[in-house]
Fold this protein.
Amino acid sequence: MSHAPHADLSPKNTQLGPGSLTLRNAAAGIGIVCLGAGVYLGKSGAFETDARTFWKIYLVSFLFGLTICLGGLFFVIIQFLTRAGWSVAVRRPAEALASNLKWIWLLFVPVLWMFFNGTAGTLFPWADLATLEANDPGIAHVVEKKVAFLNANFFLLRAVVYFAAWALLAWFFTNQSTLQDHDGAMSRTKSMQKWSGPAAIVFGLTTTFAAVDWIMSLSPAWFSTMFGVYFFTGCVTGGYASLALITARLKRWGFLHGIVTGEHLQDLGKLLFAFGMVFWAYIGFSQYMLIWYANLPEETGWFLTRQVGGWLPITLMLLFGHFVVPFVGMISRWPKRFGLSLAFASVWMLCFHWIDLYWLVMPEIPSDIGSFASYGDLVAKYGTQSNGLENPLNYILAFGVLSLVVAGSVAYLQGRSLVPMRDPRLHESLSFENV
Amino acid sequence: MSNISQATSTAHRPVYGLIAEFENTHDLMHAAEKVRDAGFIWWDCCTPFPVHGLDKAMGVKRTWLPFFVFGAGATGTAAAFVLQTFTNSFGFSAWALVKVTGYPYLISGKPMMSLPAFIPVMFELTVLFSALSCVGLMFLFNGLPRLYHPLLQNNRFRRATNDRFFVVIEARDPKFLRGSTEAFLRTLGASAVEAVED
């Protein structure tokens, strides 16, 4: 309706140059070296890392990469589900994140392999009931009733289903979008719209069950019916933060000039604000509130553990760093509209998303958590426990996985233009303005 | 209304302003930029539907409303916290129109002042205060409710809700001069320019 856009869609503006090849190779190299070094150091017990801690750190790092890519996939699905016009110009970076789902299962193979060499009990207590019975009979008694769901074969089968579903969805949406660049067929948009509904359902179910399998079952007696949604808020936090960061970076490198404007950045900022900050806090508090209020022993221990010793500062850090500070910082219009402030907020949210995953996975619920007469007694015994943040393995492995995700995303963007050139809604996206 | 009666009333009533009619948004946008650059203050555009980019063309400044709403939201949070802390946690009395007394209530052994239980109410009052102040202040800033407006007397202006776009320059504008402003509006490509009585 307003002035017709004259965006520059020439290759200079919409194709990555040869410099990206260096970035891709460097990121892939650094990723492989970091992962290799991290696994070697962790397995050999460096930094006083025991086997269980190592595998938990590995799981946190893997989930960090996975949630970012799942967030990208979710963004793509939702754009087709809602027939959104504004987002076409920023869809490619999201597709790039999603495309990593085609190979990211490789990083989970070592975890699955533990079920074949019989060491799965180090990470998942339910996988070795005999040891659990010896260490913690109370928990074992509860877990024995969950064997129909928590058993090795079914667990492996589910993992295969999740990864297959994500790889299939990622392949379908990235492939159709890429092919449309060549033939401009309207039928591709129609087919992606048609399948986006079922895709959203599959996405919701698989992420929920994956969260239960890979995070909740680490403390097998604990349960929260809201946990799948909480994990999903993590996916969108990581995904939207990465998407905003990549978009801001591409603009900074001189691409997408006149294609992605402050209007698009503002909308990405809104999504990050709404999902990463507000929705995360809303779901996180709802989960906490119900468990805190009901005060059931098998549920409360999970939060109680996170309120004593070294975990208390992390819990508070999440409250303020994942919600209060960015909420106030990003609530107004202008921080969302400039690449620099949006990129800063994205990096900030990515850091706290990692801390969030760390906070979910790492704490160990003491078996005697329910036996204290008062909170003071609990603090007296567990008040000095470390949160393990000083272990360099955390950062080596997380950086390794992140580098591989960067390498995979850059590789995807190299193969095609940075905007879906012949998407029927591209024009609408180019002339998009916030009211 | 006949021409004669309109002519008579024009003679007696002061002029509210001038309206210029445009046939499409492109002409309107162009005209808005010109009127903005001419330095008018008391003027407006009337369109049947929201026109993207018109705010920029008119040089409309961003509203201060969000800052007031943020303040109202923060007030809501604080009010909810004080309300619950007082009623639930303290036994002393205070005068708030009538004498009220806090009633310490022990719920399943939890502390008297337990913040997690207060948060839902704090959240709700934040939303309530922000939403009400947002709507209320929006009305106030826009000068609503307003049951009469001179423009609504004009027959030509009726099409502002259908298929025509209008620029209205009010007579109270310091730069308003009936003759020169009318000539200026005609140069902008208006399909009609008319005076509206107050």
User: Anything to note?
Assistant: The beta strands of chain B are 15-22, 43-46, 93-96, 98-101, 165-170, 192-197.
